[in-house]
Design a protein that fits this description.
Elements lengths: L5 H20 L3 H17 L6 H17 L7 H36 L14 H16 L8 H9 L1 H4 L7 H9 L8 H35 L5 H32 L17 H7 L2 H15 L6 H19 L3 H22 L6 H20 L3 H11 L5 E3 L4 H4 L7 E3 L8 H15 L4 H7 L4 H16 L13
Parallel strand pairs: 1-2
Amino acid sequence: MLFNSHEYIFLFLPITFFIYFYLNSKKLTELSKAFLVLSSLFFYSWWNISYLPIILSSMLINYSLGRTFAKESEPEFRKKIILIIGIILNISLLGYFKYANFLIENVNFITDSSMPTLELVLPLAISFFTFQQIAYLVDSYKRTISEHDFLNYALFVTFFPQLIAGPIVHHKEMMPQFANIRKKVKNYKNISLGLFIFSLGLFKKVVVADTFAIWVNNGFDKAEVLTFFEAWAVSLSYTFQIYFDFSGYTDMAIGAALLFNIKLPINFNSPYKALDIQDFWRRWHITLSRFLRDYVYIPLGGSKQGKYKTYVNLFTTFIVGGIWHGAGWTFLIWGALHGIAIVVHRIWKQMNFRMNNVLAWIVTFNFVNITWVFFRAENFEAAQKVLSGLIGLDGFLLHPYLEQKFYFLRTYGVEFGMWLTLFEPKKFVLFIFLSFSIVFVRNSNDLQGYFKPNILNLFIIIILLLYSILNLTNYSDFLYFDF
């Protein structure tokens, strides 16, 4: 079920909210948790009920493995073996559904064979609930957490606001909140704040991200060639589409969770304000960066084995992050480019170099913008088409209005004609200007500290919700649902 659908907004969310708090008001705490788990599983299986046995099996196996770590009589070496088995099982499940066909296609290419691919559909949210449960196993092994109740564990994994696309949460972040008796009664400040954040997220997704999506699809999927300005329009459109799409999802997840008095960790913090690539990854998909740091980078040795091994560990971590996003060479290249960038940044810092803040922002933003091309492109040909346009290899086209004053540019290969035909030029310029402006103002995390449940904010909530709902003509997936 999509956050940006009528079924979710008008039926699922309000019905789940009222029944959950009604059961709690009658002191039926366990029943209220069971209801929330069942509601979350219904939310998950709405798209395709065949996904349900996969997530249920994954939960049962990981819960059973996690229980063994709490047994004092269990030898330490056996616990370590169980942990390794658990991690292998989780990665194998993810690998089978997400990477099996990619592996077969590459074997066919290398060996010139024709092995048939598997008829697999990627289960929804498998990358997220797999990583979340790996973190649970490792934390259980380290004895920083212990869960003895399967219902609690099921709630930890399936809580619907964060189930599909994160944030990737830790058990210790979530379950103490559900256990807090004060959070089992309606909190009208949290309700108003939750609706405010949710409405912001819905507006970002429906009005902003989905508008950019039209231009992105025109450029990547329909155009055969992109001139210089068209290519930059396409790349910037995707840069802001994925920004507002993911930011919108994050806001809606945080807002929906707040209705139930649950505070999710911050997962998105104005990443396009970043002045270097390290700062970007401290702001973009924060919980994924945290997972990769704690469960990939540090186990590899982190920065404790010399600077050259540190560079290898950083690069490897970003390769893992790239391939986690998708089974394709373009994702691997995207991860590798960010890995190289983070290594260069580490060397830059070690040599005590400094850069003007404005120049640092320009370099960082444009690096991110250009590397998104690989992230979005279906294949190398699509990426090459956009990249060629970005450096002007496929020509320059200016509006005919400029021909009289700049006709001399024809000598340098510039043509005049109807430009940006794949876009709505005036609307595109307006959206780009507004997007750059929004990037630098207070984000929804900041606004939570200033929010007050008053008439003005009620008016803002109503306007944002109404305008967004009126634009819910065609539901569109969130980009991170594919990962």
